[in-house]
Design a protein that fits this description.
The structure is a single chain. The protein is of the alpha+beta class and 254 residues long. It is built from 6 helices and 15 strands. Strands 5, 6, 9, 10 and 11 form a 5-stranded antiparallel sheet that branches. A 4-stranded antiparallel sheet has the order 3-2-1-4, with no helix packed on it. Strands 12-13-14-15 form a 4-stranded antiparallel sheet. The two termini are 59 Å apart.
């Protein structure tokens, strides 16, 4: 327990350690200034308790999202004369286990939304067409060179009674002048007798931004960040002691 002296002055209050001739005035501007106490000032008694150890916030509070944390909606858009493209990540899904742990049940994906132009700098989002990129398809786009192309086919009703009635084809092809890539989405929907194709040119710079964002988000789509955030030193020690000849140990001991 430490006894401090609290004195009132015209400028407010100052605090002094009786064992020290110096005082601290919290109202002074930076850099801090040391003043001697005026013996004529009125003195009050103040007691406080402190710890030599600095209180640090739990590191898990930075790595683990709080349950009451607000939802955040993000996306990246590219606007051109004939169409607009919006790219949005979607998180993976988990299921609780009886042990209290969680298991990944569905990987995340990136949602592409194509909207045709409806005028100068205007786009008709009511006519948008969407395409969900899986982690593997994202990898194909990341690995594209300047002259490479790729194509993906999706049937939203695959394995169901309406299989084959909706066909989506996404093509990513190099521009003829080598300045970037074309993103072309073709959708044939026999259920509503619709056949539409929306394409948008993406420059090298814009494509580089997409690749950078894809590289960053892939581990999160796989759910690996939840595993990394859950690692604790005491857990790894306990697991190693309980199973000293695990598969990983056998692999590295060869």
């Amino acid at each position: 327990m430490l006894n401090l002296s609290l004195s009132s002055t015209q400028g407010g209050y100052i605090i002094q350690n009786p064992k020290s001739p110096f005082i601290f005035n919290p109202h002074l501007s930076s850099p801090p200034t040391i003043k001697f106490i005026n013996p004529s000032s009125r003195k009050l008694s103040l007691k406080c308790q402190y710890s030599d150890q600095q209180q640090r916030p739990d590191a898990s509070s930075y790595s683990q999202p709080r349950e009451d944390a607000p939802k955040v909606f993000i996306g990246h858009s590219i606007y051109k004369g004939k169409a607009a493209l919006t790219v949005e990540p979607r998180p993976p899904e988990f299921a609780p286990l009886d042990s209290g742990a969680f298991k990944l049940t569905k990987e995340g994906f990136v949602l592409l939304q194509f909207a045709p132009s409806a005028g100068v700098r205007q786009y008709d989002w009511s006519r948008k067409q969407v395409f969900s990129l899986s982690v593997t398809e994202i990898g194909s786009i990341i690995s594209l060179g300047a002259k490479d192309s790729c194509e993906f086919f999706h049937d939203p009703f695959k394995g169901k009674s309406d299989e084959g009635r909706v066909r989506k084809v996404l093509k990513v092809e190099p521009l003829p002048d080598g300045s970037g890539h074309f993103f072309n989405l073709s959708v044939q929907n026999k259920l509503i007798n619709m056949d539409e194709s929306i394409y948008i040119p993406v420059t090298k710079a814009e494509f580089a931004i997409l690749v950078s964002a894809f590289n960053f988000v892939v581990p999160y789509l796989l759910g690996w960040h939840t595993f990394v955030n859950s690692i604790k030193p005491q857990d790894s020690t306990r697991l190693n002691n309980g199973n000293p000849r695990s598969g990983a140990d056998l692999e590295w001991s060869r």
